[in-house]
Amino acid sequence: MNLEQLRGFTTIARMGHFTRAAEELHLAQPSLSRQIATLEHDLGSVLFQRARGNITLTPAGRALLPLATRMLADEESIRVEMAELAGLRRGRVRLGAPPTLCVSLVAEVLSSFHAKYPGIELQISEAGSRVLLEQLSGGQLDLALIVTSEHAVNETTLQHVPLLAERLVVADAPDGALSKQDTVDLRALAKVPQIAFSRSYDLRAATMSAYDGLGLDPNIVIDGGEMDAVLRFVQAGLGVAVVPATVLTQSTGLRSVQLVDPQLQRTIGLEHRRDVTLTTAVAAMQEMIRSTAQQLAGRFEPISTLS
Q1: Among residues 68, 94, 112, which one ends one of the domains?
Q2: What span, in angstroms and rounded, lies between the C-alpha atoms of 81 and 83?
Q3: This prediction's pTM
Q4: Residues 272 and 153 in one domain
């Protein structure tokens, strides 16, 4: 078994087609077919079911896919690290974060990191914590910011760095429904027109759980928005939205109303795989995230550091 065989295997699995996979890999299809046949012979298992041009993974193929993906990701990390050790001013960081952090902490981190290390390639994955944990375990990410108050982290496989605790607040337009209030309780808030996030957001689940706990049915006027759209709708006066405090550190044209009775908060952690040594670039990004989180906590009272 070699890395070229694994690269061919994962490409076929992703594209579901031998010919298109061969084209992407710049190989003749017979060469790719021989690679897979040799790999199947070495492993003693059939990896693909082939029926009338339809290519699907067998149970053995499904078991191999995450392992092969991680091995190829590790190979790339080694190449990047060796380039750095050779003194080249280049590298790569693959960072994942929920949308609520991409518009706040991550935006500030990337601005500072790029200014300090302009030769480092930055790849960002914006998704919910569950998906990010899968990508991290599968080798598609080097680091991931996770909402740890909503998702447990397997610390036997992942290195967990506690980062931030932040309160949830209510975002409102300057002349919006809560323009004359500095605080609002959940019962009163339930009656106010609200913009609800997509069901894929950890924030949506946390907010609806709080309402359910009090037997409340919030007045949702727009349902299923993504972060940028929700903030624009609030600015337009269509309703209010419950957001993490960090979101409003970067947003202009919105005011923050403190949510009380109950006071809701979430915790954020930074994760990486225990079995992968951080490259120089990834370690620098990890330190940049930690220091920026501490700066945010020092500037904004609803945010506190956990590290």
Answers
A1: 68
A2: 5
A3: 0.69
A4: yes
pLDDT digits (tens, 9 = 90+) for 221-250: 999 889 889 999 999 999 999 999 988 886
Rg, Å, the chain Cα set: 23
Query: What backbone torsions phi and psi does residue 172 show, to the nearest 5 degrees?
Result: -140, 155
In this structure, how many other beta carbons lie within 10 angstroms of the beta carbon of residue 91? Answer: 20
What pLDDT digit, counting tens, does each position of 44-102 carry?
999 998 877 678 999 999 999 999 998 888 887 777 777 665 544 677 899 999 988 98
Q: Alpha-carbon distance 90 to 244, whole Å?
A: 34
Q: Does one domain contain both 54 and 94?
A: no
CB atoms within 10 A of CB 81: 17
pLDDT exceeding 90 applies to what percent of the chain? 55
Phi-psi region of 44 (alpha: psi -120 to 50; beta: other; left: phi over 0): left
The tally of domains found in the chain comes to: 3
CATH label of the domain that carries residue 203: 3.40.190.290
pLDDT given for residue 119 in this prediction: 82
Quick check: 117 and 262 in contact, CB under 8 A?
no
Residue with more model confidence, 138 or 97: 97
Distance CA 39, CA 25 (A): 17
Domain region containing 238:
166-264
Distance CA 276, CA 121 (A): 19
DSSP of 65-130: HHHHHHHHHHHHHHHHHHHHHTT-S-EEEEEEE-HHHHTTHHHHHHHHHHHH-TTEEEEEEE--HH
255 neighbors 227 (Cβ within 8 angstroms): no
